[in-house]
């Protein structure tokens, strides 16, 4: 009797496995192994080592100089309490090109890499700007179907532009959901092929009309840049960003099993080097006063689109409603690179948790808290 019960149980397990593969949910096995079996509910900032990746190689390093007042002032009790409660691993404040504050926790240091999550969107968008500079892409208005003609057969396929993708106004049939294991986000994160997911997605509404944050949009943009340049995104990022910016460490860009970078996500780098991306944007495409990306393109990135109700430009979140205008890169679990032009300031926060409180436009309120705290250390002149 016991043997019969065991055979039935094994048959059920085998049937579930077969059904999972038939229905395309086989990525769940990796997802469960990397999350639930480790006591996690989703992706973590340390899971880059569990995926294949391509190296974004640095060149000659140009480390950030330290300000004369480096770490001389203590973090406020409110800030320190928040950072520790939300399992922060890095916090940096940089003003006028020098580090004012630099703190690490939980075994992290200035060279420790962690997951950018959606902050990678800004890097992908910068590569779009560089591809336009290099005359491999005509403009942001170029149709995606120029580069991928097979997309023209979809509803609205011929109307979808690269700007629609970068501004999150693509109109894809894609619900951005980081909690459901059955979402497209989960499949692109844990699955075998990102192309299978994004190219099978349909366009549900006319592009360019409505803002809706969708990871699939940035992945399509990454495909367009890669094909236009004829090289992997990681190689292009190395040549046009990591080397000229003097990054201190190589980075790793997570790929699917076919070696395609997840352009919506997952650059494994450190707080200091993420800050260099912020510096490039803050200085309108220049680094050490050398132009790297067209200033007009950076202005497009930092200017909110009308359709986003003032919260998103191209690959970058914006807040012009605040008394202190700012823009920022934002990734899952509260990865932030915040740029404050008025004070020539960059703030980086990396960590394992984020607060859920949002403003009336659904932006994270914690960004303004970080700015107000950073100003306590800053030169206000």
From TrEMBL:
Region annotation (Disordered) ranges: 48-67
Keyword Ligase: no
Keywords noted in UniProt: Membrane, Transmembrane, Transmembrane helix
Superkingdom field: Bacteria
InterPro entries to which the protein is assigned, alphabetical: Beta-lactam-related, Beta-lactam/transpept-like, Diverse_Enzym_Activities
Transmembrane segments: 6-28
Residue ranges occupied by any Beta-lactamase-related domain in the UniProt entry: 80-364
Residue ranges, compositional bias (Basic and acidic residues): 48-65
Protein name: CubicO group peptidase, beta-lactamase class C family
Organism whose genome encodes this protein: Epilithonimonas hungarica
């Amino acid at each position: 009797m016991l043997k019969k019960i065991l055979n039935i149980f094994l048959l059920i397990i085998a049937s579930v496995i077969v059904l999972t593969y038939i229905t395309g949910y086989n990525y769940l096995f990796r997802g469960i192994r990397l999350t639930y079996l480790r006591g996690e509910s989703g992706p973590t900032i340390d899971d880059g080592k569990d995926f294949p990746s391509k190296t974004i190689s640095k060149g000659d390093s140009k480390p950030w100089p330290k300000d004369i007042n480096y770490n001389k002032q203590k973090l406020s009790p409110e800030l320190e309490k928040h950072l520790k409660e939300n399992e922060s691993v890095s916090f940096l404040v940089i003003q006028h090109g020098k580090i004012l504050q630099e703190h690490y926790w939980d075994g992290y240091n200035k060279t420790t890499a962690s997951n950018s999550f959606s902050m990678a969107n800004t890097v992908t968008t910068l590569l779009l700007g560089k591809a336009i500079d290099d005359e491999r892409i005509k403009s942001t208005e170029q149709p995606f179907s120029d580069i991928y003609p097979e997309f023209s057969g979809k509803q609205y396929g011929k109307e979808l532009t690269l700007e629609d993708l970068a501004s999150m106004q693509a109109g894809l049939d894609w619900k951005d959901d980081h909690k459901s294991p059955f979402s497209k986000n989960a499949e692109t994160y844990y699955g075998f092929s990102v192309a299978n997911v994004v190219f099978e997605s349909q366009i549900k509404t006319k592009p360019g009309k409505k803002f809706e944050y969708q990871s699939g949009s940035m992945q399509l943009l990454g495909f367009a840049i890669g094909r236009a340049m004829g090289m992997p995104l990681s190689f292009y990022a190395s040549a046009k960003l990591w080397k000229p910016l003097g990054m201190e460490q190589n980075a790793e860009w997570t790929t699917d099993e076919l070696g395609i970078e997840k352009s919506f996500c997952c650059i494994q780098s450190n707080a200091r080097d993420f800050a260099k991306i912020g510096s490039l944007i803050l200085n309108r495409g220049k680094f050490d006063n050398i132009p790297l990306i067209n200033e007009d393109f950076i202005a497009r990135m930092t200017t909110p689109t009308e359709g986003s109700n003032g919260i998103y430009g191209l690959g970058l979140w914006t807040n012009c409603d605040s008394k202190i205008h700012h823009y920022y890169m934002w990734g899952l679990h509260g990865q932030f690179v915040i740029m404050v032009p008025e004070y020539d300031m960059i703030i980086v926060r990396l960590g394992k948790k984020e607060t859920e409180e949002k403003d009336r436009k659904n932006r994270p309120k914690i960004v303004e808290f970080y700015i107000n705290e950073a100003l306590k250390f800053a030169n206000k002149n």
